[in-house]
UniProtKB/TrEMBL annotation:
SUPFAM superfamilies: Composite domain of metallo-dependent hydrolases. It comes from marine metagenome. The chain crosses the membrane at residues 15-33. One of its GO terms (molecular function) is hydrolase activity, acting on carbon-nitrogen (but not peptide) bonds. This is Amidohydrolase 3 domain-containing protein.
């Protein structure tokens, strides 16, 4: 049996060794028992298909700052709840990962940025201000072309009106593609040159 003679230790040594021991215990607990952070939103009582062969199904999801931070059972999710957490009971509804069409058009996008670029501009007034600026700074261009506007800017219909362009660029044709490349916003001058009228058949 080992006997320790504490008389050889000063009070300072005892305090120092005790402090080192306490720090060691705290460090071990912080590594093996990390502090659980509460989250913004918890989705409970769900049928979550994860597309993960190791864990294909789950019943709860935690979301923090717009990002999924937990996918698992409800017991684990409830540990993330505090007084500020919004808990939503999905009553057995299914959750699936988003279906995304991931593709890009680098050449088309690059050309659009070199023209009258409306990307990252929100609001009709700001869009019109930018288009007017493009027309004023390029007086030699026969057409004002570009793109980048988005459908939500023209809610609820989602369709921009040619009259908006006519008011700021009445003398030259304007042709602006939407950000997804599937819609075209033009003014009356562009329609006139294209021979399109109200009686033109829908192709």
């Amino acid at each position: 049996m080992i006997k320790l003679d504490f008389s050889k230790f000063s009070i300072q040594d005892t305090v120092r060794h005790g402090f080192i021991f306490l720090c060691t215990v705290i460090l071990v607990f912080s590594i093996f028992y990390p502090r659980v952070e509460a989250t913004d939103t918890i989705l409970l009582n769900a049928k979550v298909y994860t597309v993960n062969p190791i864990q294909p199904w789950a019943s709860a999801i935690a979301i923090q700052d717009g990002q999924i931070t937990y996918v698992g059972d409800e017991q684990g999710a409830r540990e993330l709840i505090d007084s500020n957490t919004q808990a939503v009971n999905l009553k057995g509804r299914m959750i699936l990962p988003g279906f995304h069409d991931i593709h890009v058009h680098p050449v088309h996008s690059g050309v659009s940025y070199q023209q009258c670029s409306l990307f990252d501009i929100q609001g009709v007034k700001k869009l019109l201000d930018k288009i007017k600026e493009c027309a004023l700074t390029n007086p030699e261009d026969e057409w004002i072309v570009g793109g980048g506007w988005t459908v939500p800017d023209f809610a609820p219909s989602g369709l921009p009106d040619k009259k908006l362009l006519d008011e700021i660029v009445p003398d030259r044709p304007v042709s602006l593609k939407s950000s997804d490349g599937h819609s075209l916003w033009v003014n009356s001058k562009a329609l006139e040159l294209a021979g399109i009228t109200a009686t033109t058949p829908d192709p």
